[in-house]
Amino acid sequence: MSNPVSYFFSCLFVLAAHGTMLFSVFSNGKYSSVNDVVILAAAVIGLDLLYFIVMPFFRQKTYAVDFMLVLILNMSIIFQSCFGGVKLDVKHFVTCITALASCRAGYILCCDHRWIESKKKFIWAGIGILMVIILLFTGSRSMWIDLGFMTIQPSEFIKPLLILACATSVSEQQNKHQIWKFNIVYDNLIIFGITAVVLLFQWWCRDLGSIPTFGAIYASGFILRICYPKAKYSKKTLIIAGICVAVLGIVAIIVAPPYVKERIFVNIWDDTSGTGYQQSKALIGIAEGGWFGKGAGNGMLHDVFASESDIVFATICEEWGLLFALMMILMLLIMTAMPLINPPRSYYHGNICAGVCAAFTVQMALNIFGSCNMIPFTGVTLPFISEGGSSMVTSGFMIGMIVASQSPEFNQAVRSTGTTRTMNRG
Fold first, then answer.
1. DSSP structure string for 31-81
2. In the chain, what percentage of residues exceed pLDDT 70?
3. What is the pTM of this model?
């Protein structure tokens, strides 16, 4: 650990933030027994302390992203455990621990860019295998696999794979092949084809809310490939790409299912018991919560379907207040913006950071703006805050990819006194 003092004060900050929230639950929350608050506090503080002990065993340049992650995850545990009354949400607590473990996995797998680039064909195959699994095991035009005791959404796991697929194609920008007077990079055609199939697959499975997220991941990778110093894309290629995107957008609106068009043009206050039910309730909850909220467990939105996932922003606004909800969103944005503070050490790591930030930003926008009726309701989850195992595990892995960009591993041969040795820079 390069700076133990900074690590110590970061630990104190996280503990103070969670302690303040728990004190608010104790003083203003709705609970039948003090034991419920004690159990919640023990789970949150215990997870904090365990994390602080384990993290120094991982050699990193900085732990800033990790501290932001554990801060947000334990905030999420407090939120989810207070909707409708204070009681530890054990299921969400377990998924948050899984997200922390998934973050470590993402960090370990994505540190060495040369190793992961050598596996890019397996990444492409993984995306295809996940789509086959969805077709075989989710039922007719569905995205969920029901195991009885839990449900899994395999499409969530496509997100980090698509980010890696875009990132591992960067080095190929120098290998152009001329076809019909166009300079073509084969990897670019493959990534475009994979993305197109994924988007069509999402449409076929009626998971239209996830389409903007996958589109944003591909767009971020495409822009970085254009900006790659040795790519040298022609204006003709870029113009054609822009026209294709515009045509696809128009076609998507034309062929959109009737229920999607209804959501676009519906007046929620004319249909508060139908299409506009969730959004109208969400807006009422935000208004009643005001700046400082009704108090943990004192809201009414917990009775509305998907209050803990799709409209979780409104549920938090009702119980904790708009000011606290905006602070939570700000912390999520700061975590995704960490690569701007500690720049990635390679173009590959910069690409995965851009993909992760694009995915999280779009998801946050869809969830928040949908809850506030600023855009059609999509049903997309809020990263790390909404309840959901598949989303939580995937989000944790993607944050691990950002952590890897902060402490990457480079393996290169260096000549020294007539011999060759390997240097590991982390």
1. -S-HHHHHHHHHHHHHHHHHHHHHGGGS--S--HHHHHHHHHHHHHHHHHT
2. 85
3. 0.86
